[in-house]
């Protein structure tokens, strides 16, 4: 069975084609600048040469048509015909309370995703464009939606409710939903496999630290708390997002600077985080470089960022009354030796002992970076959100 995984953003569309017989990736790629001039399709087939095409792609339907052309191209293609694709799996950011797990796309499911636009105005509309575009291009192929929030639907009320008037929950469903669910789910399961211990017995703290970043407390295989909130703005400091702050700052700044709702949203989502504090970049590599060159702002950004990761780990260890394993994943978590070192070196009160040599090793494989004596296992596990989407799609269409 072959499954096409689609991750649609407002102006981009990522894809991967899986052969589920051995879960191998046949091809992957990206369409960028949809709706702008000079859209770019980058197609990377496994075992064949890469292809780049610049053209005008005004909307997602054309983007998917181009992707299907690339997948069936004589020179760069990996399948003979679109009919070889058995199902399409879509990443959708927000499933609200309606979707506790992945679902086959039906008229009802689409209606529900549309209803959730309110909760994720930046993220769900592009996902819907991706679904529609796939339906237009592949009308007879089943579609599945996999939600970033679904894994966190197991959180208890005490973790997902905010201490604000209850009417806001009953009227608008204001509550914590979390994000990166497919990643936290995947790496917690991989951690149990790596440790060769039953997931049901483990208390794991998964740190998905990429451009967006979130930490989850996974107890017995289910999410019991997570740092992102109703939207992906809460929690850790991120590349351009503020993460936690005193909510009173929002009306204060709006008043002083005469900002609109959109402007303050943009400030907190796009002009805060590492970028705001360092004044240099939202990219951890450049922050680390700046720090090495003695730039004080980069150092402060790095210190604030790592301090918050450490505080969340500490609080989730308290939430679960213990921790067996801490897992690092995503762009920064998998690659930044200095970040992991800085976070872990002051978690000795939990019994964490890091092995510096193991921490310095670079490999794309799951690995342990704690010492044999460490009371808590510390692992680096490359995430694979696309594979989770492919697996769920496979399971649901079989
Ligand atoms: P992601 O959102 O998971 O794709 O992560 C992207 C982020 O990972 C980038 O913005 C970088 O900040 C970070 N990153 C990638 N490689 C490295 C590296 N070698 N060291 C530190 N950070 C990295």
From TrEMBL:
Enzyme Commission number: 2.7.2.1
Top-level division of the source organism's lineage: Bacteria
Catalytic activity: acetate + ATP = acetyl phosphate + ADP
Gene Ontology MF terms: kinase activity
SUPFAM superfamilies per record: Actin-like ATPase domain
Residues holding ATP: 14, 208-212, 283-285, 331-335
Residue numbers binding substrate: 91
Annotated metabolic or biological route of this protein: Metabolic intermediate biosynthesis; acetyl-CoA biosynthesis; acetyl-CoA from acetate: step 1/2
HAMAP family named in the record: Acetate_kinase
Subunit details: Homodimer.
Name this polypeptide is given: Acetate kinase
Species in which this protein is naturally found: Paenibacillus zeirhizosphaerae
């Amino acid at each position: 069975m072959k499954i096409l995984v689609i991750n649609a953003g407002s102006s981009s569309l990522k894809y991967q084609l899986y052969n589920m017989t051995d879960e191998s990736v046949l091809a992957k790629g990206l369409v960028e600048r949809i709706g702008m001039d000079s859209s770019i399709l980058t197609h990377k087939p496994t075992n064949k040469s890469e292809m780049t095409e610049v053209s005008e792609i005004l909307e997602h339907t054309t983007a998917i048509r181009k992707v299907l052309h690339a997948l069936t191209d004589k020179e760069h293609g990996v399948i003979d015909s679109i009919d070889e694709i058995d199902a399409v799996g879509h990443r959708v950011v927000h499933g609200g309370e309606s979707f506790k797990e992945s679902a086959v796309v039906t008229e009802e499911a689409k209606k529900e995703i549309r209803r959730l636009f309110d909760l994720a105005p930046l993220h769900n509309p592009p996902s819907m464009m991706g679904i529609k575009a796939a339906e237009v291009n592949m009308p007879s192929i089943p579609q599945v939606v996999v939600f970033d929030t679904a894994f966190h639907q197991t959180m208890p009320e005490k973790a997902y409710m905010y201490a604000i008037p209850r009417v806001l929950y009953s009227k608008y469903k204001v509550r914590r939903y979390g994000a990166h669910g497919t990643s936290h789910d995947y790496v917690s399961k991989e951690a149990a496999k790596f440790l060769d211990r039953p997931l049901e017995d483990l208390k794991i703290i998964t740190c998905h630290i990429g451009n967006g970043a979130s930490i989850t407390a996974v107890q017995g295989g289910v999410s019991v708390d997570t740092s992102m909130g109703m939207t992906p703005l809460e929690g850790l400091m991120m590349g351009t997002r503020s993460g936690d702050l005193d909510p009173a700052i929002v009306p204060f700044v709006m008043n002083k600077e005469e900002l609109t709702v959109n402007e303050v949203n943009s400030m907190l989502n796009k002009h805060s985080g590492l970028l705001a504090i360092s004044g240099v970049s939202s990219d951890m590599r450049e922050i680390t470089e700046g720090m090495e060159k003695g730039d004080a702002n980069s150092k402060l950004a790095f210190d604030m960022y790592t301090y918050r990761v450490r505080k969340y780990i500490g609080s989730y260890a308290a939430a679960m009354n213990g921790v067996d394993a801490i897992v690092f994943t995503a762009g920064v978590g998998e690659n930044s030796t200095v970040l992991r070192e800085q976070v872990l070196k002051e978690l000795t009160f939990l019994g964490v002992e890091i092995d510096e040599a193991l921490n310095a090793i670079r490999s794309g494989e799951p690995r342990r970076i704690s010492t044999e004596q460490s009371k808590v296992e510390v692992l680096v596990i490359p995430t694979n959100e696309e594979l989770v989407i492919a697996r769920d799609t496979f399971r649901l269409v079989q």
